[in-house]
Specification:
Pfam families: BLUF (PF04940). By secondary structure, the chain is of the alpha+beta class. It has helices at 18-39, 60-71, 107-112, 126-147, and strands at 3-12, 42-47, 51-59, 76-86, 98-101. The structure holds flavin mononucleotide.
C-alpha cells in the first residue's frame, strides 16, 4: 500500500433548516463510512453551516478515486485541495470517517488551533486541520465514554 493523505476544504451547500441540514450531513457520513471501510480509507470530516474540512488517508489510488468522486458532489462547492502527500502512518486508523459538527462546547478546541470565530479555511494550513481533527476525535471519544 502506498499510504497517502489528502486534506481539502469546501463550501457546504447542503442547506435547509438546521434539522434537514443535520440529516443531510448524517447521510453523507453514513455513506462515507460504508464506502471507506470497503476501500481501506480512514479520516475525519469537520463541518459547520458554511464549510467542510476533510482528511482522507489510505492507498493513493483509493483516496484519489474517492476525492475525485467527492469533488463532483453537488452538496458542496469550491472544493480546494490543501495537501496530498505520502504519510508513514494513519492518524485516524480506527475511523472509516468520523463526522464532527462544530458546536459551542468545542469552542476551546477550535481556539487552541487559532480559530476564534467563523472558520476561514483560506487561512488554515493542512497540518492545523489534521491536528484539529485529532483533538475533536479525542473529544468525541471522551463524550461517548461519558454517556455510556
Ligand atoms: C463533504 C463530503 C464528504 C464526503 N466524503 C466521502 C467519503 O469520505 N467517502 C465516500 O465514499 N463518499 C464521500 N462523500 C459522498 C460522495 O460524494 C458520493 O456521494 C458517494 O461516495 C457515492 O457513494 P455511492 O456510489 O455508494 O452512492 C462525501 C460527500 C461530501 C459532500
Amino acid at each position: 500500500m502506498n499510504l497517502h493523505q489528502i486534506v481539502y476544504y469546501s463550501r457546504n451547500t447542503v442547506g435547509g433548516d438546521t434539522r434537514s441540514m443535520l440529516q443531510g450531513l448524517r447521510d453523507i457520513v453514513s455513506v462515507s463510512q460504508k464506502n471507506n471501510s470497503r476501500d481501506g480509507i480512514t479520516g475525519a470530516l469537520i463541518f459547520d453551516k458554511t464549510w467542510f474540512l476533510q482528511v482522507l488517508e489510505g492507498d493513493v489510488t483509493a483516496i484519489t478515486r474517492t476525492y475525485d468522486r467527492i469533488a463532483k458532489d453537488a452538496r458542496h462547492g469550491e472544493v480546494t485541495l490543501m495537501k496530498k502527500e505520502p504519510i508513514s502512518e494513519r492518524r485516524f486508523a480506527d475511523w472509516s470517517m468520523g463526522g464532527t459538527m462544530r458546536s459551542p462546547e468545542m469552542q476551546e478546541i477550535f481556539l487552541n488551533h487559532g480559530i476564534a470565530g467563523a472558520i476561514d479555511p483560506t487561512k488554515l494550513d493542512a497540518g492545523t486541520v489534521v491536528a484539529l481533527a485529532q483533538d475533536l476525535k479525542a473529544f468525541e471519544a471522551g463524550r461517548k465514554a461519558s454517556v455510556a
